[in-house]
Structure formats: structure tokens, C-alpha cells
Design a protein that fits this description.
Strand order of the largest sheet: 3-2-1-4-5
Distance between the termini: 44 Å
Oligomer: single chain
Number of helices: 3
Strand content: 25-35%
Amino acid sequence: MQGRTPRPATARSVLRRASGAITWIDARRAIIAKTAPAGAIDVETVAAETEGDGRTYLARVAHEIGDRDRVVIMGPGDLRTMLEREYVTISHRPDRLVDVEPSGPVTEEELVRRLRRLVS
């Protein structure tokens, strides 16, 4: 630092809202409610493919969930657990899974309500 005067450190508070995603999945489709920039909530639907082993479907859903701070996966049966494993395999962030719970069908509105509670 010869010849340079260091700038004084300034305290700056950066508040960042937690990001999140809640997914409901079954063998036909997945509905993903996720936070977007500026606090908006996006809802996406991913249809299952009719052929193959389902891994492409799970990978597409995990990709839609994306890099979020908090993730909830809901749905009936083993597909819910398979999505959890796929998400962890892709993201390498098992700590972000807040909950993986069995659930019957839910509406998009219910997913959005739950997401708002999750990130507030």
C-alpha cells in the first residue's frame, strides 16, 4: 500500500430476503412456486414425459426449483423422495431442503400462500 491512502471502511447493512421454492409433484406434473427478483412469485408447471425412466422429468423439475435458500417438496408416493434425491444430486445442497412431506393435490394458490410464509 505504498503511496496509497486506504479508504475508511463504511458499515453498510445489506438486507436480502430469503429465496424459496415449494414444489408439489406427482407422476403427471409438477407445480413449482418460487421466489423471483424484487419479491415476486413465479409459478411454473412441468409436465412428465410419457416415455423413459422419469429421470429427465425429475431433472427438469430440480432445474426449475433452482438455487433457492429454502426448498419444500410435497406430493404423494416415492416420486417425492426421488425428487429430493435428484435435487440434492444436482444442487449439492441438502441443507436447503426445509421439508419433504407427503401431500395430496394442492392448488397453485395454496403453494403461493405457503411460499410467502416460508420466506417471510
